[in-house]
Amino acid sequence: MNVLVAGGAGYIGSHFVRLLVDQDIPVAVVDDLSSGHRRSIPDTVPFARADIGDSETMRRVLAEHEPFAVVDFAGLIQVGESVRRPDLYFRVNVAHSLRLLDVIVQAGVRAFVYSSTAAVYGDPIRTPIDEDHPTKPINPYGASKLAIEHAAFAYANAFNLRVACLRYFNAAGAHPSGELDERHDPETHLIPLAIDAALGQGPALTVYGQDWDTPDGTCVRDFIHVMDLAEAHLHALHALHEDGRSLCLNLGTGTGCSVQEVLAAVERVTGNKVPFAVGPRRAGDPPQLVASVARARHQLGWSARRSDIDTIVKDAVRARRARFDAPDGVPGSSRFPPPRGS
Ligand SMILES: NC(=O)c1ccc[n+]([C@@H]2O[C@H](COP(=O)([O-])OP(=O)(O)OC[C@H]3O[C@@H](n4cnc5c(N)ncnc54)[C@H](O)[C@@H]3O)[C@@H](O)[C@H]2O)c1
Q: Does the domain made of 3-325 have the CATH classification 1.10.3210.10?
C-alpha cells in the first residue's frame, strides 16, 4: 500500500508520516509549507513542495508515485481567522481541496482519507456527539471542512473512489521520541500554550470563562493523542483497502477533560505552576465537546491507547523541552540533519 500524504509537514500529518515510515509503508509527501516544517519529514521520504490546488504539479506527483490512497491533512485550521477571512478559508479548504479531488479521480487513485473536524457539528445539542448528530457549523472553518466531506462522499458515490472522513476532536501531544512537536504559528491550542506558560517560554494563559455549566466551571474538551490519531488513519487505510464502503467517523476518546484538569496535568508533569488569568467566554465556544467513539471502535477496531491526559502532556512536554534545548529550535534536529534544499 503506497500512500501520498498532503499536508504531511504539519503537526498531525508529520506524525502520520512517521508512523508509515516506522511501519515500512511507502509514503511521499506534498506540502506547500505555508504552516508546515520541511524538517518534520525524514530526508528519506520523497517530498514535493506544492499547493494541493496546483493541479498540474499534483498530476505529476500522482503519476510518479501511483499511490493507493491520498491522505489529506492540508488546509487552514484557525477558527478565528476563518471568521475574519472566509475568502481564504473557502479558497484553500474548499476550492483547492476540490481541485485535489478532481485530480485524484482522474489519476485513478482508489482511496481518499480526509482530515475533518468536530467543528462540523457546530453547537452540540447532545453529548457525547455521535456521527448522526446534525452538522451545523457555526464558523467558516467548520463550513469549509463540511463542504469537502459532502463533495468527497458524492465523488465516492459517482466515481471509483473509497472515502474516509475522520472528524478529529482536540488533537494533542507529540511523538513519544520527542522528535516531532506541535508547532502552529500562531499557536492557539490549549496544551502547548499552557506548557509554554509553565516553562516560562510564553505568556500567561487566558482561560476563557470559569462559569460554564460544567463540573469545575471550565470548558470540557476531548483530547486525543496525535499518535492515536495517526494509528486511526492507518486503520482507516486498511479498512478502505479491504472494503469499498465509505467511512465517516469521530476520532476522540469519549471522555472529556476540563481546562482546569489540563492545567493540573501540566503542573504535575512540569513541576511548575501555570500562570493564567480568567478572561470572558469566547463567542461560539460550546461548554462541552466530547466524541461518541462507538462507531470508530466498531468499524475500525480502533480506540485511543495513549490519550489519558498525563501521557498527552508528558509527551508534549518532552517534545517542547527538546525544541527549546535544540541549538536551532527544532526537536530531533541532531538526528535528522537538514534536508537538502530546505
Ligand atoms: N489540530 C487539531 O486539533 C485538528 C482538529 C480537527 C481537525 N484538524 C484538521 O487536521 C488537519 C491538520 O491539522 P494540523 O493541526 O496538523 O495543522 P497544520 O497547520 O500543522 O498542518 C497543515 C499542513 O498543511 C499544509 N498546507 C496548508 N495548506 C496547504 C495547501 N493548500 N497545499 C498544500 N499544503 C498545505 C501546511 O503547510 C501544513 O504543513 C487540518 O486539515 C485540520 O483542519 C486538526
A: no
